[in-house]
């Protein structure tokens, strides 16, 4: 930045306060629109996210000489917790999601009962109460499982982001713009984070989604039907027209 | 070996056929004797072992944008299988044991639904029929879980060892020797492999176990009460006397 004559220490002075409304067009990055055969969505809210790290401690023992009843198997306990994370998210129902993406076992020997397992939980909900309910139930059930199995349990919060609602006026306007372009847009929650989430602190925000083929995202297969890209830009243009005049 | 004037190519000629009975004294390497407050055991059999490698394939997806119902989560499926391995061994009852010691997740990202999980199963039983029943039930239940969850499943056998019974005459003789040393020995299965397992192909074999403190084995904490070590050597000596005269 300095080479170009800019001063990074003055970045705060670049903040703008002349923006009234921010409209973002994005690919969905999931399979919801494709599954519903819907070409366009107006986003209602961006989910809140919490990332947890769960450490389960048992006792490493010889896999041949330790009867099942004398074990404190960290992986068997962690497996019950992974199941619990999935079933709690399912039982809370859409749009709650919870995912165990990483799981490491120690000492990781074929003939040793695992002594320690560390796994992560990614949990998301567009409503702060829903996000907290999801987390509380997961923490509680992991606690019950660890007590029943005489395992140590430590749950650490790695990250927390509050959910952000899109502005009601902008949602209405985007739905109208879609209708004027001949499309009945559906409303949906965004499970991924977006720029609109940050700008919501500064101005009115709204988002449009077009379908992702096969829901693929962040990989070489990421793609969207050109007809959907065209529709998205048309509705975006009509939205800006409606906002400006 | 060559430096010492020995020829490694002639190792087969060192095989002995003049051994009638082989008696092995060993620490238990588990917690069974300590839990039962028993100072000595006569081994009835050494378990048969099978090592399996299980590969579960689902689809990696964005943890935020993929609703629970559209997922093919390899780790959620593998967790159900880990639970199944434990519950099958428990329901078959002692002395069956089954252990998942290693488990690797891909792509192992906090915000990605796992696409592939590879885990190992170590399963043991002193009776070949029992060992096979254990393996068949595990294979069958893993198959059911993978079908229900639309996951790919490949189970590969890494290693198989048949169970080995200790010789009936030697077992009787060891129990008598213990009695003559003032101890009522219990009978138990060895969950770990031992030299007697190999020599059983050549001669009559028998084994004595003394307790391991806390069941610890293959670690710096491995230890046995000196009184138990002394008892073991006394019973061993009496056994050899009974065998020789």
Structural overview:
The structure is a homodimer of 245-residue chains. The first copy, chain A, is α+β, with helices and mostly antiparallel strands and 245 residues long. Helices cover 33% and strands 28% of the residues of chain A. Chain A contains 6 helices and 12 strands. Chain A has helices at residues 32-35, 74-92, 128-148, 168-180, 195-199, 226-244; strands at 21-27, 41-46, 48-57, 61-62, 97-99, 103-106, 112-113, 116-125, 152-161, 164-165, 186-190, 204-210. In chain A, the strands form 3 sheets. In chain A, strands 1, 2, 10, 11 and 12 form a 5-stranded mixed sheet that branches. In chain A, helix 4 (168-180) crosses helix 6 (226-244). Chain A is elongated and about 80 Å long. Chain A starts with 20 loop residues before the first strand and ends with a helix. The model of chain A has no long low-confidence stretch (mean pLDDT 94). Chains A and B meet through strand 4, helix 2, strand 7 and strand 8 of A and strand 4, helix 2, strand 5, strand 7 and strand 8 of B.
Structure described in brief:
The structure is a homodimer of 245-residue chains. Helices cover 33% and strands 28% of the residues of chain A. Chain A is α+β, with helices and mostly antiparallel strands.
Q: What is the secondary structure topology, with strand pairs?
A:
The structure is a homodimer of 245-residue chains.
Chain A: E1 21-27, H1 32-35, E2 41-46, E3 48-57, E4 61-62, H2 74-92, E5 97-99, E6 103-106, E7 112-113, E8 116-125, H3 128-148, E9 152-161, E10 164-165, H4 168-180, E11 186-190, H5 195-199, E12 204-210, H6 226-244
Parallel strand pairs in A: 1-12, 2-11
Antiparallel strand pairs in A: 2-10, 2-12, 3-8, 3-9, 4-7, 5-8, 6-8
Helix pairs in contact in A: 2-3, 4-6
């Amino acid at each position: 930045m300095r080479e170009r004559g800019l001063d990074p220490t003055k970045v705060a002075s670049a903040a703008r306060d002349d923006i009234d409304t921010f409209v973002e067009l994005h690919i969905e990055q999931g399979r919801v629109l494709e599954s519903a055969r819907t070409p366009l969505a107006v986003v209602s809210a961006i989910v809140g996210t919490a990332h947890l790290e769960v450490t389960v401690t048992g006792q490493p023992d010889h896999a041949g000489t330790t009867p099942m009843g004398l074990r404190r198997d960290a992986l068997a306990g962690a497996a019950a917790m992974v199941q619990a994370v999935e079933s709690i998210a399912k039982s809370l129902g859409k749009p709650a999601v919870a995912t165990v993406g990483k799981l490491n076992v120690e000492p990781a020997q074929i003939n040793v009962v695992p002594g320690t397992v560390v796994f992560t939980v990614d949990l998301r909900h567009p409503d702060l109460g829903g996000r907290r309910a999801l987390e509380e139930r997961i923490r509680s059930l992991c606690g019950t499982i660890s007590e029943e199995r005489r395992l140590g349990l430590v749950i650490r919060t790695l990250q927390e982001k509050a959910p952000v609602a899109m502005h009601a006026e902008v949602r209405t306007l985007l739905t109208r713009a879609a209708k004027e372009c001949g499309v009945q847009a559906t409303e949906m929650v965004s499970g991924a984070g977006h720029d609109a989430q940050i700008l919501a602190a500064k101005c009115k925000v709204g988002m449009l989604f077009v379908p992702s083929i096969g829901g693929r995202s962040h990989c070489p297969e990421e793609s969207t039907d050109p007809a959907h890209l065209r529709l998205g830009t048309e509705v975006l243009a009509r939205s800006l027209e409606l906002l400006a005049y």
